[in-house]
Design brief:
The complex is a heterodimer of chains A (401) and B (528). Chain A is an alpha+beta fold. In chain A, 20% of the residues lie in helices and 33% in strands. Chain A is globular, with a radius of gyration of 21 Å. The chains are: A alpha+beta (401), B alpha/beta (528).
Chain lengths: 401, 528
């Protein structure tokens, strides 16, 4: 049975649909009312508030903290300034991705890592011989994602004190702040590809923080956000989901199920010029000989989809939510890979998908076919390969001062 | 005098003019759009009438904008975001209300309070309207064939169309014929017994039309409002983020990207034509601009009678256009509020405030409003379609404050006594008094009030009589008869002079379809 998060008393009161999902053992709202459209649009037009407490959170401290995090992550963590946040995957010895998350740097010897899966054992194993302590804060911290174009204005009204003024806080940076007397960490991060922040707060203060943000947010069109709408938003942003778009190397049952960072579009987060990290030799080798698979965005050709549906006298079916069932991608009749996440984007007015393709075919601009079921029959809809993200507004990175 | 030469000049920067220009420019035509006002969009404009408060001054919701236009012009890239408008609430004087939204179960239970039978019927009705919208969708995408023509290509088109309509099935075909001919109230009474539900649904049949819900022909207007399509779903309505002006801005941005030039504050006086051939336009400033073709997005009366002049047109066309029904029937009251008002029947700022609120408690109520207007009087209690744009899109008003858009029917263009300049505020008072019956205490929250009568609409944006559809959507003015028999294919008796406004097929609303279809015909003539 999933258990409540630190914000549950508040999210439960707002949920009229009573639709919950199990996210890492916690009750997580799927959607708050009968339809999730309003939540989805709130993030692109106003703001959405998502409880991300089920993320695993670890503090890393000690003289060798930097060495440890740098050894874990494919990115060069020595380049991460105090007050900065980095996103990085981490790999096994074969350079296959185990998980991905954010690294917040609080001090020269103090980091906080987030992970989708429990990672204490792996972090401790890698820390062997290093003078660094890892503390599992997963259950002690509540986390809220405040996402959308109005998130900054809302947060400015809520916080009473801030190390870095919010207008000056850059994308993927953090600041310590206060809401009344409650200390919170604010990171300018998120999983929606929009302007947004995440608030990290001690469990005992969680409800008060939620109340503050939610009540101020009402003037700005803030809505509570559930996982169904989030899934559509993150696909628009071209962001991966573990166990959906790739399988953790630790959970793969066969070698072919594993992926390197290069194969899932995270090559930009692999720094081979920095120090050693777990899996580096394998990734050096992969970089040299090229990757077998590559990650690619895909847009479905709507007129062709209309044609396919018109054959059975129907208008194209528009999925109201993202699908995580993988479907084959073809080129000239043979399969070249698979789509792992697909959604109709109400914002962009098109079907968009995340695909893993054999590398020689992953050429943006090329035409491919994707399997689509039209009235129980398998059809191949025309699609075009495109670069991700599908949606990338200027406000995501914009700094006001 | 500038002698700059364009391939095409589009008169009027309303949404159809802009769509037309975008499609022409997309094929490489050097295109110029001329708009008389300082702001683009015609009836689809957003203006900050009161500091910090943005009004979709005239047209206020969107559904009918053709998906192919959104796609061809890549409007999302140019900033178009359509936010859903999910619910309709009808408050009643006895303290009850009908609330319908995307939650089918809740809507079912709500209608059950009035009639168990109607609750069942409502689903069936929705299903039937799906077939109707599907049947008519075909017509939205084609240039009307001329049934009087003997041209084999025309006959082929007619045949194709006949085949399409016969393929929808016998029962559906009969329903369609009923929709084309009946009054909206009578049509709905065949389905429902709950009067306020019939009234609210029938209201879609009178929008922009100087007819009552019991007047024959209004059922078609109802259907016209059901043809809207969002993301493949028929009869979905939405609100453009930033107001309807944002739609015009997005289309203008696409047009500019394709190379079109857009000039505001450039009112056109007339089309310059020589030997039955259009060669350019003369601006009111005296400036003359020349082009291979000229397109008018203005209403039919302006397009023909003003821009060309009766003496240069065939007399039967002149007669048809003179007789073309373009009666003002509606007005608009836009309010700036210092807070979100509360409904008497349903307190609080729940999701119903993000949908439409319809003041249509009974068919008699709407019909009585029409009765007054029919005789040139201002109805005391009009039909009002309300939305709170700021509750859907926080950018429309300062935080915590709100804008309220009230579409009001009826407002006759011709008053029996006095004129609109004298009586405008009386109209505004009637609307606010009616609102106050449903939103007790609203009066003290009004910071600013903008009242637009049909006369004001005509004054501000030029549409004859302020008719929002550039001509009523009555059967005699549709399809191959819009705007006149023989001239429904966007061409005119003046060579190289075309029409692309809502006064042409398939008619009004923010569809963009006339602009697009006209552009496709023009490009065909130019061999592009």
């Amino acid at each position: 049975m999933p258990i409540p998060t630190p914000f549950h008393s508040r999210t439960a009161a707002l949920s009229s649909s009573h639709e919950w999902r199990d996210w890492s053992g916690y009750l997580s709202a799927a959607r708050y009312s009968a339809t999730h459209d309003a939540e989805y649009y709130a993030v692109r037009s106003a703001a959405g508030l998502l409880d991300v407490s089920p993320l695993f959170k670890y503090d890393v401290t000690g003289p060798d903290a930097e060495r440890l995090v740098d050894r874990l992550m494919t990115r060069d963590i020595t380049q991460c300034a105090v007050g900065q946040v980095m996103y990085s995957p981490w790999c096994d010895e074969d350079g296959q991705v185990i998980d991905d998350g954010t690294i917040q740097r609080f001090g020269p010897q103090h980091f906080r890592l987030t992970a989708a899966d429990p990672s204490l054992r792996w972090f401790q194993d890698v820390a062997f011989g290093l003078d660094a302590q890892i503390r599992d804060l997963s259950a002690d911290l509540g986390a809220l994602a405040l996402q959308g174009p109005k998130s900054r204005e809302i947060l400015k009204q809520v916080i009473t004190q801030s190390g870095v003024p919010l207008d000056a806080l850059k994308y993927y940076y953090l600041t310590q702040a206060k809401i009344g007397r409650i200390p919170v960490t604010i990171t300018r991060t998120g999983y929606t590809g929009d302007l947004g922040y995440e608030l990290w707060v001690e469990r005992r203060h969680a409800e008060k923080v939620y109340d503050q943000v939610y009540s101020v947010g009402q003037k700005y069109g803030l809505m509570p956000l559930g996982l169904v709408a989030l899934d559509m938003l993150r696909i628009e942003a071209g962001l991966l989901l573990i166990d959906v778009d790739y399988i953790a190397a630790t959970k793969a049952n066969i070698e072919a199920q594993k992926s390197s960072p290069y194969e899932i579009g995270l090559g930009w987060a692999v720094d081979l010029d920095g120090g050693d990290f777990v899996g580096k030799p394998a990734l050096v080798e992969e970089k040299r000989r090229g990757s077998e698979w590559l990650f690619c965005g895909l847009e479905i050709d709507w007129p062709h989809l209309e044609e396919l549906f018109a054959r059975v006298d129907l208008p194209p079916k528009v999925l109201g939510m993202a699908s995580r069932s993988a479907v084959p991608v073809y080129r000239d009749g043979f399969q070249i890979g698979q789509v792992t996440s697909i959604t109709f984007s109400p914002l962009l007015k098109k079907y968009i998908a995340l695909a893993t393709l054999q590398s020689q075919y992953a050429v943006p601009g090329d035409e491919v076919q994707i399997e689509m079921t039209v009235e129980f029959t398998r059809q191949q809809a025309r699609a075009r390969l495109v670069k991700t993200p599908f949606f990338n507004p200027k406000r995501k990175r914009e700094v006001l001062k | 005098m500038s002698r700059q030469k364009y391939d095409s000049i589009v008169i009027g920067g309303g949404h159809n003019g802009l769509v037309n220009a975008a499609y022409l420019a997309r094929r490489g035509l050097k295109t110029l759009v001329l708009e008389q006002r300082h702001v683009l969009g015609g009836a689809a404009v957003t203006e900050e009438i009161y500091p910090g408060f943005k009004f979709s001054v005239f047209s206020y919701v969107v559904s009918l904008l053709r998906p192919e236009i959104i796609r061809d012009l890549n409007l999302p890239k140019h900033g178009l975001t359509i936010l859903p408008l999910e619910s309709t609430l009808t408050p009643l004087p006895d303290g009850r209300y009908i609330y319908r939204d995307g939650d089918a179960g809740a809507t079912y239970r709500n209608i059950q309070h009035f009639s168990r039978r109607d609750a069942d019927t409502y689903k069936e009705y929705g299903h039937m309207m799906y077939f109707m919208a599907k049947a008519v969708k075909y017509v939205l995408g084609i240039v009307p064939p001329d049934p009087a023509s003997l041209n084999p290509l025309e006959l082929l088109e007619l045949l194709k169309m006949a085949r399409h309509f016969l393929s929808i099935g016998e029962e559906q075909f009969y329903t369609l014929v009923k929709l084309m001919t009946m009054s909206s109230a009578e049509f709905l009474q065949e389905w429902f017994e709950t009067d306020p539900l019939i009234a609210t649904l029938s209201a879609s049949g009178i929008i922009g039309t100087f007819l009552g819900p019991r007047s024959p022909g209004t059922a078609y207007v109802l259907l016209h409002h059901y043809m809207g399509e969002i993301d493949g779903a028929f009869r979905a309505w939405g609100f453009a983020k930033g107001g309807t002006g944002a739609i015009s801005e997005a289309i203008a941005s696409a047009a500019r990207e394709f190379g079109a030039e857009i000039r505001t504050e450039a009112p056109v006086a007339e089309v310059i034509h020589k030997n039955g051939r259009a060669v350019g336009v003369a601006l009111q400033s005296g400036e003359e601009l020349y082009a291979r073709i000229v397109v008018s997005s203005l209403d039919p009366k302006l397009t023909f009678l003003k821009m060309i002049g009766e003496s240069h047109l065939p007399s039967d066309l002149v007669e048809d256009i003179r007789a073309f029904n373009i009666r003002g029937s509606s007005g608009k009251v836009n309010l700036a509020l210092d807070r979100l008002p509360e409904l008497g029947v349903l307190k609080g700022a729940g999701p119903h405030m993000r949908g439409a609120i319809s003041i249509s408690p009974s068919v008699d109520y709407i019909e009585r409003a029409y009765d007054a207007a029919k005789h040139g009087d201002i109805p005391k209690n009009p039909y009002i379609d309300i939305i709170f744009p700021s509750a859907i899109d926080p950018d429309m008003a300062p935080p915590g404050k709100h804008v309220m858009s009230c579409f009001v029917q009826y407002a006759p263009y011709h008053l029996r006594e006095g004129n609109w300049e004298q009586r405008r505020e009386e109209f505004g008072d009637n609307v606010v008094n009616t609102l106050a019956q449903h939103f007790p205490g609203i009066k003290k929250h009004i910071l600013h009030r903008q009242v637009l009568t049909p006369w004001d609409i005509e004054q501000k944006i030029g549409i004859t009589q302020g008719n929002i559809f550039q001509g009523e959507l009555s059967l005699s003015q549709l399809f191959f008869l819009r705007p006149a028999a023989g001239w429904a294919k966007y061409r005119t008796p003046i060579k190289n002079y075309y029409q692309c406004g809502s006064g042409t097929h398939p008619g009004g609303g923010i569809t963009g379809a006339p602009g697009r279809l006209a552009a496709l015909e023009i490009l065909k003539d130019l061999g592009k």
